[in-house]
Amino acid sequence: MSEREHTYTVTCSWVGSTSDGYDTYDRTHTATAPPAQTVLHLSSDPAFRGDPTLLNPEQLLVLAASSCQLLSFLAVAARARIDVVSYTDDADGVMPEDPKPIRITRINLRPQITVRGNATDARLAHVCEVAHHECFIANSVTTEIVITPTFTFVD
After folding, report:
1. Using one digit for the tens of pLDDT, what is the confidence trace for 9-48?
2. Of 110, 122, 142, 146, which residue is 20 to 30 A from 64 by alpha carbon distance?
3. CATH number of the domain that residue 85 is part of
4. Is residue 89 a contact partner of residue 109, using CB atoms and an 8 Å limit?
């Protein structure tokens, strides 16, 4: 590994039996990403017989895009000396069943960003755009990512 390369290691684990066919096996599995100690309990999308009370890989992809945009926005805003005091994103991903292959075709990010100071809507929109171009996840997927921010200003 070069000094300019980052590697992200994860482990997914499942134990069970698929001997009774597709309709009956348990989709529940765990995921870890050492050195983080958090263990995620995951399943498949309920549409594919998963447990609706657990996160699924599709949600994790949307979550990764949302989280990365948030972190990228905060970094760009901090470098621009913009005082962001809150950022909440209600995001979703769209996965039509046709055409095949089935894939998430669009991720909609809707950040609600509150700033203190004299930034303008235009400047904040530009920061959103720069952050999108710097977002590692957005740069890693072919899925369309649409960002529709709203800005609130406080004293």
Report:
1. 999 999 999 999 999 999 999 999 999 999 999 999 999 9
2. 122
3. 3.30.300.20
4. yes
pLDDT at 6: 86
pLDDT for the residue 100: 85
134: helix, strand or coil: helix
In three state form, how does the secondary structure of 42-106 look?
ECCCHHHCCCCCCECHHHHHHHHHHHHHHHHHHHHHHHCCCEEEEEEECCEEECCCCCCCCCCCE
Domain that holds residue 71: 57-154
* Any domain includes 21: yes
Cα separation, 82 vs 79, in Å, equals 8
3-state secondary structure of 120: coil
- Rounded to whole angstroms, the Cα distance separating 86 from 71 reads 12
Nearest in space to 128 (alpha carbons), one of 94, 107, 151: 151
Residue range 82-118, pLDDT digits in tens: 999 999 999 999 999 888 889 999 999 999 999 999 9
The reported pLDDT for the residue numbered 2 is 60
93 - beta bridge partners? 107
